[in-house]
Model the fold of this input.
Amino acid sequence: MIRFTHASKRYPGGHDALLNVNFHLEPGEMAFLTGHSGAGKSTFLKLIALIERTSRGQVLVNNQNLSKLKSRNIPYFRRNIGIIFQDHQLLFDRTVFDNVALPLIIAGYPHREIGKRVRAALDKVNLLNKEKAYPITLSGGEQQRVGIARAVVNKPSLLLADEPTGNLDPELSREIMAIFEQFSQVGTSVLVATHDLDMISQLPYRILGLKQGQLIKDTKTDAQQGTMR
Amino acid sequence: MKTNNKSRRTVRFSLATLFKTYVLRHAQVFFYSLGQLIRHPFSLFMTAAVIGIALALPTGLHVLLKNVQQLSGEWDRTTQISVFLKPDTSEQRARDLQQQISRFPEVEKVNYISKQKALDEFQRLSGFGDALKALKHNPLPSVLVVQPLITLDEQNISTQLITKLQRIKDVDIAQRDEQWIKRLYAIIDIVRRGVALLSIMLALAVLLVVGNTIRLAIQNRRDEIIVTKLIGGTNAFIRRPFLYTGFWYGLFGGFIAIFLVSVSLLLLHGPVEQLTSLYQGSFSLANINFRTSIILLIASILLGLGGSWLAVGRHLREIEPR
Done:
């Protein structure tokens, strides 16, 4: 699903945000990306969502080489990825329904289809009764679930989440994680950047550790290679 | 890649459905952008009024010019030659001359305006009645107004007929009344060019006004644009509401311009009628017609679209997710 081959990102000014990262995420796999702030988590996700491009090396998503993807095709590429933000990035002048419908409207879905899909997505995050509400009237956890509904309404094959539980208490965080698990169980690849190590250590998923732009830990490959550390 | 296939399968719809959806989306954005504008009626009015005033000025001048051209065109067809007689020419001699000239083959008719008649007319129309009474004697000459045959071509009138009239004894000056029309035409030509230049400058101003307004709208909706880009919105999709906003500004501005021009000309109507009656003419000021209104509206809409296109083209590219 995602494959990094010697991927590096150097920002203008010479700061190396990522250095020679190799990594492969299988379709339907769920993984956590950890590290201190500034370790390169955001850059990692940005390379996948084509918000940034690699300076060296390659990133393949869905067998597509991102360095060869033309700028004008980026929107169509992103429609296959659901992105969830820490601050959920909802549009506050529209109802929950309209927020969740936005990716479908962008992709040009017919009207009837939109209603069906939006309600299905809201049902998955348990917010079916809030479709007419405005985001401002919802709690933080509910807003984040609206953000998730918007990310999955398009049925993307890949979900990226950048600190999705950063502002939530542990119980709400677990709720959110449970939703991600559900998606991975139906075959969606999920990659979650977080620094909530307590929570992810209780979950049986792959953990990637970044430090100063380098991948220093990968529970999957480490286990395969036996005694790395 | 089970999930990938699934997501691909669900995107497939019939072409007719896709087209219907596309048109429906356009219509939605079209009225959505109108709704957004109407939610802030004051700022909509301000921007539309600036556009309206900027466009009303050249349009109003254009309509006035057309009126003047029409008026001078009427005068042009009735070219007359005024034959001024020497001051000491007797009444009898003048009448003889009238007879003589009217027998010329190239002349249709001759009107005789005696000194006294000219003075009376002048007194009546000019409003200087009392002042003229102070004069000891009538300073005006007798005039024979010669109306040449309309079939006569221009060159003949100006050269041959005038020389012929000039040569007659007791004739002081024979001159064509259209001399000043030629001057008027020259002036009109200059004014027309001035109006054209003014139109171009004000059209640019409208472009900039709309462009700046849209630029502000883009900056206000920066977050929304970033989110839309992140979830796969194409530039065309993001551009659309702003272009329609420009369209609405142009449309409303155009209506305001038409309204301003109509009202201004309506206000001028009375005084102009009064003025032309003083010149013994009956001329009624034509207001902005349907064709000009439509052209004005189209131009206004195009300027609105153009202005927003410029702004969107420049500023959307700067807004990228970071």
